[in-house]
Amino acid sequence: MTLLIMVFRKMFNNRRLVLALLLGLIISVALISSMPLYVEGVLQRLLTKDMEAIQADSGYYPGHFLYKGDLYNTIEKDKRCTLYDQLNAYLLQDVPVLAGVPHLAQARFVEMGFMSMLPDGYQGDDKNEKRIVSLGAKTDLQRHITIVDGRMPSDKPVDGVYETLVTEGALNKFHTVLGKTFVVTNGFDENMKPIRVRPVGVFQPKDERDLYWFENLSSYNEKMLMDYNLFQQDFMSDTAFYATAGQWYYAFDHTKFSLDNIHRFLDGYKIISKKLVFPGFSLQVPAAPILEQYFQKEQELRTLLWAMNMPVILMLCFYVFMVSSFKVNKEKSDIAVLQSRGADRGSIMLQYLVEGLLLAGVALLAGPPLGLLLCRMLGASNGFLEFIQRKALPVRMTPLAYKYAAVSALVFIIAMLLPVYFAAGTTIVNRKQEMARETKATAWQRYFLDVILLAVSIYGLYTFELRQKNLEITAAEASQLQIDPLLFIASTLFVLGMGLLLIRIVPLLIRIVYAVGNKLWSPALYATMLRVGRSSHQYQFLMVFLIMTIAIGIFSANAARTINTNAEDKVRYANGADMVIQAKWQDNAPPPGSMDPSAQQQMEINKKPIQYVEPPFEPYTKLQGIEEATKVFTKDKVAIRFNNEVIGGNSRFMAVISDEFGRIAFRPSIISESYWNSYLNLLAVEPSAALISRSLSEAYNIKRGDYISVSWQDQNDLQMVVFGIIDYWPTWNPKPPVGSTPDPENPHKSDPFLVVGNLSYFQYNSPIQPYQVWLKKQPEATSAQVYDGIRENRMEIVSMVDTEQDLIRLKNDPFQLGINGTMTLNFVISMVISLMGFILYWVISLSDRAFEFGVLRAIGLSFKELVGMMVWEQLLSSGVAMIIGVIVGQLTSRLYVPMFQITYSAAEQVPPFHVVSLATDQIKVYGVMIGMLLIGVAVLTMLLRKLRINEALKMGEE
Q1: Helices H, strands E: what count in the chain?
Q2: Where are the membrane-spanning stretches (predicted)?
Q3: Distance CA 668, CA 729 (A)
Q4: Given the DSSP bridges, would you call strands 772-777 and 797-802 parallel, antiparallel or unpaired?
């Protein structure tokens, strides 16, 4: 109890520092605890979108589970009933348990298929009277249908006739009416006696959107349905098993899928898949392949978040260490007295440990809820420092978040105790000696910590470059190479190392400036230079802190802009233009499957080229919202001939109208506008001119002026002259596909190749072939305007690429949201912590130097000169640190922002990853810096006004 009282009294005496320390701890715990919450929230949103995409793309409900098979042809007769009973028991009892999520609907369907049906008593041989029907039964049918005509069938035969339900479509297909009796026979099993059936009711689903209806409703137009129990009793017994097919269906609630249970669902799916392997049976679970990707996506997102958050985490750790050092410095004399009076290091550490535990306890209570709030706010990010009204991320508090919070609190307690540990070994004599030797070099200067940090960070950069080369050479997935943990902290180590190195140099520069003009400086500036030059160690903490916060803020801003810009560039490059349309071309080719095999074989022998009819092009140029349109021909898998050698493989030929293409296509950011125009001008010089890819040039030593030809199945050799060699071209990826194996003798031979020529030359020397239409929209035009124009003109479109919509999807992509949200948070935290640390330092500095200011005022220094001295001191310490922070931040961005490629494969980095820095982001940082200096001057001026000379002098005498 006495210990607690001492701790509380000490905390109250230093309440400002304790409050600053507590705020730092809360922010740190909130940031770190938010990481697992954010990962789960982002992946949950991604999971929801992917589940919705399953339904949109395939028509299946996302929780669709269907096991179906042939019960007749692939199973021996005496084993059919036993196998069915085993399957039925397993699918009814074990599958729901193994799935681990509730189901919204369930159904079983059995049938006897391809039965011959004739009217009862019919003796003729008219083929029109013979029908093919399936007799089936489905569980729980009555609850999901409405009888629109007739009645429900009986659950037992009526006068030897089985009553059935049919759809309106079935009545029409069978050319019959309700109440008419038919005789159904099985042509596959002679032992089965003819069955008499009679449709007595017409049904329709109560709700066609009901998950119970897992099959296409039109399939019931060939079926008659009877009571399920009656079907099982009479046609699925040990002695008479005639069912030909069975289906077991569940509609699992996909909204219950989460990162917590998809592991269980997939494990259950694997067990079920292995258990239900029988000839003629298949299992449909469309969600399984999507869910299997989430383990990798989770790892990629965690890696990305750690890489983005690590600089801020280390910065917060440094902030806690700095504030704790301020606090310990104020209490060093008390610690020294306790040490001299017999207190050992352990007892002193215990006091501060209790204090740290109290602060950590408060941080653990407040941090995770704050982290949850941050996650919800970050879900509204639409870009770096951009927010829109958007549905909040589906985040919830989890035990893992508190585990992260507890570990982070423990780490920060250690950071708090480090200054105490070093101070606890100091006696009162040592303390007086330290105060007398304040100009002694600090430990990091003596042991060259700055050089060590720079060496480690540069090694991290080397490791990254080596990793990227391995990815490019092997064409491997990024996830296949292990990530060195050093990559996460390399940028922060570089910031700290560069900051310390420049701080080592700054005092020397100030002394030189002081010596050069020592007779010219005003008293305030003279005193300031003297103090900063001789007592630079007093400003080191502040300067290092400001360098770190500002550099990390700039790094976060540049990283966010770089990732966003590169992602958008990849979309634009892959698409090629605002819109790319493939119109429908009429041709003389027979429809697929319309010819018998002999006719197809004969056509292959004749090899007549397909003749196309070109649709009108002019309507595209007049579409509302379209500024310009051009024709672009693209053909993959072409044969390139050079020096009598045929080059196949992954080769593409493109034919363009050079001037139109230059105005409409997206220019790759890596190519300057002048180079882009010069390439296009080369095509305009000569109709047969060609641009070839550098991969083709290096693989086969093709140079400018060489002749090549391009051909494919419907195209004879097209002779061309090489006029230029290009590295990148819209829509073309020069990187080998992931997983490809390069030729060890000539690695470029496995690379993709490209040949670009003139469209007019190509069309003059070949029959007309389908081309794409590339469109450039007007600046204010929307996709909706273009879509409306296409509908109004009744244009037949086979496919369309819309870059605007792809960019919108990119911004809504959960990974992109995660990047923007995290970087925005990091930038804001950096600026807030920077401001907090800055004000805290100068407030503490002023209170510690009250006696010094009192003496200066007493010897005649005016208040204005005193304020001027403080302003100069801020500029020479904080101002210089801020400038260094900007320089280090920009340098760090250039060197280490490319490390965010660690989650991408080399083949995905097209165009190449490049660092982007926007002036608007820099202005925000500069605004914060100027604001900090102004706030600092205002606070210091206010505190100086409150300073009383007599009290300061009296305090100094005491």
Answers
A1: 31, 25
A2: 304-326, 347-364, 400-424, 444-464, 485-506, 541-560, 823-845, 866-889, 925-944
A3: 7
A4: unpaired
Asked if residue 906 has pLDDT above 70, the reply is no
Domain boundary, last residue among 737, 765, 795: 795
Out of 216-220, 679-683, 900-904, the most confident range is: 679-683
Give the mean model confidence (pLDDT) for residues 3-16.
76
From 150, 92, 902, select the one nearest 563 (Cα to Cα): 902
Reading the block at residue 739, the tokens are 């997983």
Q: What is the DSSP letter of 731?
A: T
Asked if the structure places residue 721 within a domain, the reply is yes
Q: What whole-number distance in Å separates Cα of residue 506 and Cα of residue 687?
A: 63
Q: Please check whether residue 424 lies inside any domain of the structure.
A: no
Closest CA to 64 of 247, 250, 213: 250
pLDDT in tens, 436-490: 455 556 766 777 888 998 999 898 888 888 877 776 665 555 444 455 566 667 8
**Is 689 found in the same domain as 668?**
yes
Distances in Å between the alpha carbon of 656 and those of 92, 617, 717? Answer: 61, 15, 18
Residue 479: what pLDDT? 47
Co-location of 70 and 192 in the same domain:
yes
Beta strand ranges found along 602-706 (DSSP E): 612-613, 626-636, 639-642, 645-647, 651-656, 689-693
pLDDT, greater one: 739 or 919: 919
Residue 428 confidence (pLDDT) above 60: no
Exposed / middle / buried, residue 810 (Cβ in 10 Å: 0-12, 13-18, 19+): middle
Query: Does residue 705 share a domain with residue 831?
Result: no
CA distance 522 to 507: 19
Token duo for residue 180: 């008419």
Tell me if 234 sits within 8 A of 240, measured CB to CB.
yes
The C-alpha atoms of residue 301 and residue 570 are separated, in whole angstroms, by 19
**By mean pLDDT, which of 76-80, 242-246, 296-300 is the weakest?**
296-300
Please give the Cα distance from 376 to 395 (Å, whole number). 7
722 vs 335, residue with greater confidence: 722
pLDDT at 952 over 70: no
Statement: residue 415 has pLDDT above 50:
yes
Please give the Cα distance from 379 to 300 (Å, whole number).
Answer: 19
Mean pLDDT (whole number) for 789-806: 88
Same domain flag for 927 and 840:
yes
Residue 127 class from Cβ within 10 Å (0-12 exposed, 13-18 middle, 19+ buried)? exposed
C-alpha span between 381 and 564 (Å, rounded): 12
SS3 track for 202-218: EEEECCCCCCCCCCCHH
Dihedral sign, Cα of residue 266, residue 268, residue 271, residue 277: negative
Find how far residue 639's CA is from the centre of its chain: 38
Classified as helix, coil or strand, 108 is strand
Q: Which residues contact 924 (CB under 8 A, 6 or more apart)?
A: 385, 557
Q: Residue 280 contacts by C-beta under 8 Å, 6 or more apart in sequence?
A: 69, 70, 73, 74, 75
Residue type at position 907: A
Q: What are phi and psi of 480, to 5 degrees?
A: -80, -15
Over residues 481-496, the pLDDT tens digits come to 455 566 667 888 898 8
Range of the domain at 130: 64-75+103-256
Query: In this structure, is residue 932 part of a structural domain?
Result: yes
Which pLDDT value is given to residue 379? 66
User: Rounded to two decimals, what is the model's pTM?
Assistant: 0.71
Considering 707-716, 769-778, 850-859, the range whose residues carry the highest mean pLDDT is 769-778
Handedness of CA 398, 403, 408, 410 (dihedral sign): positive
Same domain for 627 and 534: no
Q: In this predicted model, which residue has the larger pLDDT, 315 or 692?
A: 692
Say if residues 872 and 528 touch (Cβ distance below 8 Å): yes
Last residue of a domain, one of 795, 828, 853: 795
Q: Is residue 376 part of a domain?
A: no
**Domain total in the chain:** 3
Higher pLDDT, 120 or 134: 134
The alpha carbons of the chain give a radius of gyration, in whole angstroms, of: 39
